């Protein structure tokens, strides 16, 4: 089931999400809903707080090449265990901040530990767009948006645009 995506500014997007104690059927359904929502948006990542659920759950699929099979990933309680000294700059966007973009500098490679849908602990390394996306989504779990990496003027401009968008959406 596709879920509505919260638009910044919304206080739920600024909250720290508590860890998931147990991967239940309800949480697996939430993950499936989030993947459906993410693909429909379309996006490459989505965090539970973006659909109004304050749980440490992210979904992502950074496969963008035409004809390449999707690689959806579901991660409960993701934790970055190591980062590279090498940095990458990507122009990031966010489904909660539609049509707004900014250059964000993050570690180019990360090591990550998480729990999968079966409740099994996993760990892997990520680089390129995958590393950027995972870090962006984990930021959401910690109440941080990509615009916080931007300068204050650009951040204020984007926030004002989002306030205007929300007013226009409320009128419809």
Q: Could you give a quick summary of the protein structure above?
A:
With 172 residues, this protein is of the alpha+beta class.
Order of helices and strands: HEEEEEEEHH
CATH structural fold name? Peptide Deformylase
How many domains make up the 3D coordinates? Answer: 1
Task: Report the CATH C-level class.
Answer: Alpha Beta
Structural class: alpha+beta
The strand order across the widest sheet is 1-2-3-6-7
Share in β-strands:
25-35%
The radius of gyration computed from the alpha-carbon positions, rounded to a whole number of angstroms, is: 16 Å
Total helical segments: 3
CATH level 4 superfamily? Peptide deformylase
Oligomeric state of shown chains? single chain
Low-pLDDT parts are none
Helix content: 25-40%
CATH architecture label name: Alpha-Beta Complex
Shape: globular
Question: How many runs of DSSP E, i.e. beta strands?
Answer: 7
Mean pLDDT: 96
Largest sheet: 5 strands, antiparallel
């Amino acid at each position: 089931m596709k879920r509505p995506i919260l638009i910044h500014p919304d206080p739920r997007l600024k909250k720290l999400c508590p860890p998931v104690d147990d991967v239940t059927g309800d949480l697996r359904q939430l993950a499936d809903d989030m993947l459906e929502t993410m693909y429909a948006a379309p996006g490459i990542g989505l965090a539970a707080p973006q659909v109004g659920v304050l749980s440490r759950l992210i979904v992502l699929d950074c496969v963008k090449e035409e004809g390449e099979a999707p690689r959806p990933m579901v991660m409960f309680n993701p934790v970055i265990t190591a980062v590279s000294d090498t940095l990458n700059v990507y122009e990031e966007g966010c489904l909660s901040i539609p049509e707004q973009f900014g250059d964000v500098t993050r570690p180019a490679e990360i090591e990550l530990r998480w729990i999968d849908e079966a409740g099994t602990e996993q760990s892997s390394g990520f680089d390129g767009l995958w590393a950027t996306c995972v870090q962006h989504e984990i930021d959401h779990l910690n109440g941080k948006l990509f615009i916080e990496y931007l300068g204050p003027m650009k951040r204020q401009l984007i926030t004002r645009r989002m306030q205007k968008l929300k007013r226009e959406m409320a009128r419809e």
